[in-house]
Design goal:
Elements (H helix, E strand, L loop, with lengths): L2 H13 L3 H21 L2 E7 H5 L6 E10 L13 H13 L6 E3 L2 E5 L6 E11 L5 E2 L13 H5 L5
Parallel strand pairs: 2-5
Antiparallel strand pairs: 1-2, 3-4, 4-5, 5-6
Amino acid sequence: MGYIDDAFTKLKHNLEITQTEQNLAKARHEAIRDFVRSHWDLADDFLTGSYRRDTKTKKLKDIDIFVVLDANGSQADFRDQAPIQVINALENLLRQKWSAAARDGMAAVIPYGPDDEVMSIDVVPAFKRGEGGYYPERPVLRLRLGSHRQDLERLPGR
């Protein structure tokens, strides 16, 4: 193997998260998803972003979770509320277990700290659209899918 191959292998190794970091990230996102599921009626919840696509690098800045509210469940009335109210409700729910949870744009964010292996987990509430995709119901603040669009397009039933 040549010098360039060795350098690339070393660079790749330095950027990949370790198994310990992977285990911590998994434990954290599963705990959050389980907690939300135990309090809200969800149609689905899933990971999105670089963590799901396995393109994350050190430091793992964040993990993105979509929680898809059941349109016929206990939170169905959120469809008639402004997205900010839904996000505020999610923030309040998450604060029951993670006191530092805070709203940031279209997500409720649970920060773990700048020196942690996983700096934060972003939780985005949404409803499933009839024609496919996800967004908070009111068109005033539709969710900007950005880099998450490719994840959503690969979901079953799309």
